[in-house]
């Protein structure tokens, strides 16, 4: 009965309380009610610690949360994906299993920092290239989230306010598009009004977002219509940030999409390639396949 009571108490504490640092007096974990997250108490010795934020700090936290909500709502509403689990991919849950994956992670983090610094005026075209199941999509989304964190979800723009121009902060627009799903949606939109509205929304975001991820380029069918669609996109995003994941290498990309599209992509792509060569297929590892 005693162990059952302790178990119930642990569950109750997990639901009601936040767990903090060790108590400075006895070492027991400090607890704070979720409704009052700045009031910490030790259940063993009775120690209390209250961390209060100024009104200005609380207002800043609210502003950042509002921006974050707006950015993520835009991302969810304008994305085209195979599985919603892609929205959970970040650097925090990317665990390298060897030195090659660690190098990929470090290079992606470095590029994310560079992208965040040049979010407004320094376009980057980033390629993540390698076989299926190597973690390209995970890294692409992680890079997007890292940029959002570093920029606090906003960019500075020059805007006319009254009779004067001022620098104001506006939420970043980011979108994710699985290319083969997007092309399927484009086909379906021809005869379906609802699909047509959805396609128009996503296509507009893909053309105008501050950062666009094009995932699994090369998985769509072989058709001039597909290639023309990509060429039109690259004409529009020639001087905008774009992150592309693909299992195709340089010559294969040129053969498939033509030198004109690749020329536009290479314009801001110098040094922005991450190769997943030599990295194991994680899907096969999970299924117990060959290592």
Q: How much helicity do the residues have?
A: 40-55%
Report, as a whole number of angstroms, the end-to-end distance. Answer: 47 Å
CATH fold field value of the largest domain: Rossmann fold
Shape: globular
What letter string, H or E per element, gives the SSE order? HEEEEHHEHEEEHHEHEHEH
Beta-strand content bin: 15-25%
What does this molecule look like?
The chain contains nine helices and eleven strands. With 291 residues, it is α/β, with parallel strands linked by helices. The chain folds into two domains: 2-50, no CATH class; 57-286, 3-Layer(aba) Sandwich (Rossmann fold), CATH 3.40.50.300. The strands form four sheets. It has a five-stranded parallel sheet with strand order 8-9-10-5-11, sandwiched between helices. Strands 1-2 form a two-stranded antiparallel ribbon. Helix 3 runs parallel beside helix 4 (136-151).
């Amino acid at each position: 009965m005693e162990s059952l009571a302790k178990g119930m108490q642990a569950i109750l504490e997990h639901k009601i309380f936040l767990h903090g640092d060790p108590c400075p007096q006895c070492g027991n974990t400090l607890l704070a009610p979720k409704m009052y997250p700045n009031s910490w108490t030790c259940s063993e010795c009775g120690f209390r610690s209250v961390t209060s934020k100024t009104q200005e700090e609380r207002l800043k936290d609210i502003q950042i949360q509002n921006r974050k909500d707006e950015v993520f709502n835009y991302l969810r509403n304008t994305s085209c994906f195979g599985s919603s689990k892609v929205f959970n991919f970040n650097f925090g849950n990317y665990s390298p299993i060897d030195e090659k994956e660690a190098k990929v992670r470090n290079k992606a983090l470095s590029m994310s920092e560079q992208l965040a610094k040049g979010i407004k005026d320094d376009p980057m075209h980033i390629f993540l290239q390698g076989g299926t199941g190597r973690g390209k999509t995970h890294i692409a989304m992680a890079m997007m989230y890292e940029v959002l964190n570093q920029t606090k979800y906003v960019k500075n723009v020059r805007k006319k306010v009254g009779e004067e121009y001022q620098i104001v902060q506006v939420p970043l627009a980011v979108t994710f598009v699985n290319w083969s799903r997007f092309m399927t949606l484009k086909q379906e939109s021809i005869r379906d009004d609802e699909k047509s509205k959805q396609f128009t929304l996503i296509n507009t975001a893909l053309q105008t977002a501050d950062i666009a991820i094009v995932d699994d380029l090369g998985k769509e069918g072989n058709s001039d219509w597909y290639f023309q669609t990509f060429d039109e996109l690259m004409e529009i995003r020639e001087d905008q940030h774009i992150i592309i994941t693909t299992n195709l290498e340089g010559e294969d990309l040129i053969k498939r999409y033509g030198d004109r599209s690749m020329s536009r992509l290479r314009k801001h792509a110098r040094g922005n390639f991450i190769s997943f060569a030599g990295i194991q297929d994680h899907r096969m590892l999970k299924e117990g396949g060959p290592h």
